[in-house]
Amino acid sequence: MSARTMKGIAFAIAEAIDQEMSGNPKIVVMGEDVTYWGAVFGFTMGLHEKYGRARVVDTPITEQTFMGMAVGAAATGMHPVVSLMFVDFLGAGFDQMYNHMAKNHYMSGGQFAMPVTVLTAIGGGYGDAAQHSQVLYGLFAHVPGFKVVVPSTAYDAKGLTLTALRDRNPVVIFGHKLLTGLPFLPFEGEEETVPEEPYTIPFGQAAVRREGSDLTIVAAGVMVPRSLRAAERLAQDGIDAEVIDVRTLVPLDADTLVASARKTGRVLIVDEDYQSYGMTGELAFRIQAGAFDALKAPIRRLAVPDVPIPFSEPLESAVIPSVDRIVEEARALAGAQVAAD
């Protein structure tokens, strides 16, 4: 199997869509700036040049309309790939997504499949302010009918996207902007080897990114590479941290999380979404339900406090979990009396 070095999830997602479009004429791409701009964050780059406007369609700035178009297209046998440019804009297409896309398969008694793949950009860290910097995957995970995918590596982004494009149900892929690898954004991932041939990664299988014995750090998206960097610093203090990438929130691989918690006895859940009623609370319950007798300390959560994401760089840095904050929380959880760097 041939492979090449790839930087960022945007290139991987675009390649996955291209490979599936080439063999499946039912796939169409639509959304704001999906042609020349490649959906702004690169998820559809190169597709317009190859497939033209018949299959890659720029839409007006009206999420309610093009999400409704996607629902209708899916009901008639197409597989639309829809770009929700920023996840913050989901409110504009809320009704079509939550009341139709997520529910029509169930409400039709299984007569109408809803094979829709939604691509959306998440996260802050570069000063895009309160209306363009949220994560919000917890909202989609809360509603039955959606599958929720959060890749942290280019390898995973390609394999998970191909799995989504072969699914008969709505899948939302959340790509963090700081993992896209685009030149106008900071990049917090790593270049990696990605097979050129198509391959799939099953939903509902978390990845153990780093083995450890003293505590478990659970994360998603850009918090995965930050947690790995934190784990390297913790190792210098003699704290051996295991890092788990959930990969998909729906379906969730609770078994891997529980097994790690039972092994280490201590768990820190790190998230860039808001803390209240979000991923950290759900995962904490799932873990303690399966590993309560093995836990040596209460589960800790590190997430965004319940405030809009600030535009101010110092304030934004204060609310979004950083490597320093992860290290601090992990040290406290491990009971390490080590002075902060």
Radius of gyration: 20 Å
Q: Overall 3D geometry?
A: globular
- How would you characterize the largest beta sheet? 7 strands, mixed
Number of strands: 14
Mean pLDDT: 96
Q: In sequence order, what are the helices and strands, one letter per element?
A: EHEHEHEHHEHEHEEEEHEEHEHEHH
Class derived from helix and strand content: alpha/beta
The percent range for helix content is 25-40%
- N-to-C span: 44 Å
Q: In DSSP terms, counting alpha (H) and pi (I) runs of 4 or more, how many helices?
A: 12
Q: Which strand order do you get reading across the main beta sheet? A: 3-2-4-5-7-6-12
Q: Which percent band covers the strand fraction?
A: 15-25%
Low-confidence blocks of residues: 337-341
